[in-house]
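Report of the visiting student (M.T.), summer placement. My assignment was to run the structure pipeline on a short list of targets and document each run. The first record concerns Metallo-beta-lactamase domain-containing protein.
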Amino acid sequence: MVCIMRADSIVTFLCCAAASLACGLHSRTPIDTDPQFAPVPATAAGLELGPGGYAVQSYGGGAYMVTEGSYQAFFLITTKGVIVVDCPPTIGHRMLYAIGNMTSIPVTHLIYSHYHADHIGGVTIFGEDIRTIAHSETARHLLETPDPNRPVPKQIFDKNYTLHVGNQTLELAYLGEAHISGNIFIYAPIQKVLILIDVVFPGWLPFAALGEAKNVPAYYHAHDQILQYDFDHYIGGHVGRAGNRTDVLNQQEYILDLKQNCELAVNLSATDDPSIGAAALLGPVSAKNPGNSWAPFKVYLDTLAQYCANKTNEKWLGKLGGVDVFGFENAWLLIESLRIDYGVLGPFATV
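After the run finished, the structure tokens were exported:
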């Protein structure tokens, strides 16, 4: 049996999944190891990398972003030392080259944006004598998951901290989980540069599972918090370029569309129409997998997520990079969040 899925019809998705299970097929499909995705729009393009495999962008006033095309870090030159924010291991020693090409002033301070290794796993290149600063939750995570490549910060704070070094200032604030507990807002008020890692991906849709967000409502709220700052440049930690206010607004519009379409899918699955109601899907799967209550629910979640992703892609393909790459994973997480965080239960509401 061949099923053709269309983005505008949840009927197709529900019936297709049910029919496949009835035919004895697994809901999991083979992984395509040679996929063809939609072209990336020009607005998603990153900075041109130099011969060293990295690029440096100046924001004036001693503020710089460094990228190797996938990750980003930041440094700020002061009269008393250089302040660094993060050092992804994929950038690694190139941070030293980037800083050394701009100044002979030594690095004296290092800020951890949060505890994830893909952003701070290269910090040991700066040695042990620098002053490391992070939120208390970041320190807790690092104590719980010891890693010699991510030393526990020497100085921690709980809510706000203003760092003054020489002629420069950075304002650090913890406004909630956003991406994960301890993930902080870092703001250079003179240069109007805002850093918040793993939330907004300028020119692209969010990486899988909304940037691996641990708290989806907080992730959504973080976009409003970002827009309360007066910034000209936004550093999100990923992709090959920094962003601006328009990039934040574009992503906010995308995730709101995604939420609306996911909620539509959940509500449609709760209708009494046997052709589109959850019973049309759950019944055949349950019959094929007696005693396995997870089987029908997996097919239910996957089906709704695919419907939501495809419907959202209709608007956003060609506007953001990677829309068809991680659209399903973002939708899947949101379907689950709608149920457990927002109380949109669809057919599983109180009987």
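The longest helix spans residues 245-268. The mean pLDDT is 91. I thank the supervising group for their guidance throughout the placement.
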